[in-house]
Design brief:
This protein is globular. The protein contains ten helices and 15 strands. Helices cover about 30% and strands about 20% of the residues. It folds into two domains: about 1-205, Fructose-1,6-Bisphosphatase, subunit A, domain 1 (Fructose-1,6-Bisphosphatase, Chain A, domain 1), CATH 3.30.540; about 215-339, D-Maltodextrin-Binding Protein, domain 2 (3-Layer(aba) Sandwich). The chain starts with a strand and ends with a helix. It binds 2,5-anhydro-1,6-di-O-phosphono-D-mannitol (AHM) and magnesium ion (MG). Magnesium ion (MG) binds next to strand 4.
Length: about 350
């Protein structure tokens, strides 16, 4: 369910962030500035994503274009844009990203004093870029643990998801949206391309506690744990009382699959398999931010047993099985895993 009171119509992302900041008497605007800078990077990434279909005319990504300039792959471009924006904000002392093996620390005076670190997947769903299907950017913000004034350390990034200060995603879809939470519910903004601003469109997003959609890559069926196989069968069985069979929807972009289920009600599963016992998705910059949003919208996110947000990360690119969406659906899937 989306709540959207009339008085909030026409408010832009920046106006909203500033308005929210006044709710916290001691807030100094640092997080607000960080979020605004992410919004700016998102608009630049959006511009490039919109042109993605033209690369064949201008030169394929990863090669050189007709002007002899090298055309960056969109995920590398997005990574660089976000890094530049976060550095420019002066509030962030370092980032961890799917695109970088190690953490990237910002060593200028302003950034060294920055209070926050950001974990991000600059362009998620990369297999969908070339075929004009929705993709996204995911981000997760933490307060640093290391003292301000020093370089960010790996410990700053290996915090449990429960410590997130804010998290969100940008979905580059039929329209471009930014959806985020600072722990006070989930809010969504839609980019109005005519004015180049994210406008408040979903004041409060509450996900249905039950749904009819299940999202999983069924091509991997044979490798799934027994419990997941049985849950899929359960979704496909006919039962009028529980509205089954459910509908199967799988885009292959976490952001897009999650966004649809968030609004409509559903479950997204990327389970452990025989060959990948930790699944595919990454804890720090895919599962934790999505889990924070899911919970803030009234949904649930687990690895099949444990709450995602309570898992202690050990490494930057750690993977984790992921079950998220409408609370009752996740609980039902967990029941099948237990059996
Ligand atoms: P990526 O970060 O390399 O794009 O991979 C993550 C993506 C998710 O967006 C999506 O949920 C999943 O991989 C799809 O994987 P699969 O093709 O195995 O179903
Ligand atoms: Mg990804």
């Amino acid at each position: 369910m989306v709540t959207h009171p009339k008085e909030y119509q026409g408010i832009t992302l920046n106006e909203f962030i500033i308005q929210r900041q006044t709710n916290f008497p001691y807030a100094k605007g640092e997080l607000s500035r960080l979020l605004s800078h992410i919004g700016i990077a998102a608009k630049i990434i959006n511009r490039e994503v919109n042109k993605a279909g033209l690369v064949d005319i201008l030169g394929e990504t990863g090669t050189t274009n007709v002007q002899g300039e090298s055309v960056k792959k969109l995920d590398v471009f997005s990574d660089q844009q976000l890094i530049a924006a976060l550095k420019a904000s002066g509030e962030c002392c370092g980032i961890a990203s799917e695109e970088n093996q190690e953490i990237v620390t910002f060593d200028d005076e302003l950034s060294l004093d920055g209070k926050y670190i950001v974990c991000m997947d600059p362009l998620d769903g990369s297999s969908n870029i070339d075929v004009n299907v929705s993709i996204g950017t995911i981000f997760s913000i933490y307060r640093r643990i290391s003292p301000r004034g020093e370089k960010a350390k790996i410990e700053d990034f290996l915090q449990k998801g429960t410590e997130q200060v804010a998290a969100g995603y940008v979905i580059y879809g039929s329209s471009t949206m930014m959806v985020y939470t600072t722990g006070l519910g989930v809010t969504g903004f839609t980019l109005d391309p005519s004015i180049g601003e994210f406008c408040l469109s979903h004041m409060r997003i509450d996900t249905p506690e039950n749904g009819k959609i299940y999202s999983i890559n069924e091509g991997n069926y044979i490798k799934f744990p027994e419990g997941v196989k049985k849950y899929i069968k359960y979704c496909q069985e006919k039962d009028d009382a529980t509205n089954r069979p459910f509908t199967s929807r799988y885009i292959g972009s976490l952001v897009a699959d999650f966004h649809r289920n968030l609004l409509k009600g559903g479950i997204f599963i990327y389970p452990e398999t025989a060959t990948n016992p930790s699944g595919k998705l990454r804890l720090l910059y895919e599962c934790n931010p999505i889990a924070f949003l899911a919970e803030q919208a009234g949904g649930k996110a687990t690895d099949g047993k444990r709450r995602i947000l309570e898992i202690q990360p050990k490494t930057l690119h750690q993977r984790v099985p992921f079950y998220t969406g409408s609370r009752l659906m996740v609980e039902k899937a967990e029941e099948f895993l237990e059996r």
